[in-house]
Amino acid sequence: MMMELEPSVKFFCCYDEQGTLIARCQTMADVDVLKKMGRPVVRIAEMTEEESVVCSLTDTPAAFNQDY
């Protein structure tokens, strides 16, 4: 019997102009909220599937989107 895998969760890292990590977001809508709040998001990088799995397993929701 084969088990169906759930679709992977995507996470995004947002960086400022110095390349400093500003936030990790679970959706692009979250990134848009950060931009509307005036955060200096210059670069957005999608995490690899492996990184996303580790984040979803090790981080709590409080570790994401701490600005709102």
Poorly predicted sequence stretches spanning 5 or more consecutive residues:
none
Mean pLDDT score, rounded? 77
* Helix proportion range: 25-40%
- Say how many strands there are: 3
How far the N terminus sits from the C terminus, by CA atoms, comes to 43 Å
- What strand order characterises the main sheet? 2-1-3
Largest sheet descriptor? 3 strands, antiparallel
Radius of gyration: 13 Å
User: β content, as a range?
Assistant: 15-25%
Oligomer: single chain
Which structural class do the helices and strands define? alpha+beta
Characterization of the model:
This protein has helices at residues 28-36, 49-58; strands at residues 12-15, 21-25, 43-46. The longest helix has 10 residues, at 49-58. The N and C termini lie far apart (43 Å). It has a three-stranded antiparallel beta sheet. It has 68 residues and is an alpha+beta fold. It is 28% helix and 19% strand. It is built from two helices and three strands; from the N terminus they run E-E-H-E-H.
Brief digest:
By secondary structure, the chain is of the alpha+beta class. The chain has helices at 28-36, 49-58; strands at 12-15, 21-25, 43-46.
List the helices and strands and how they pair.
Elements: E1 12-15, E2 21-25, H1 28-36, E3 43-46, H2 49-58
Antiparallel strand pairs: 1-2, 1-3
List keywords for this structure.
3-stranded antiparallel sheet; 2 helices; alpha+beta; 3 strands; single chain; 68 residues
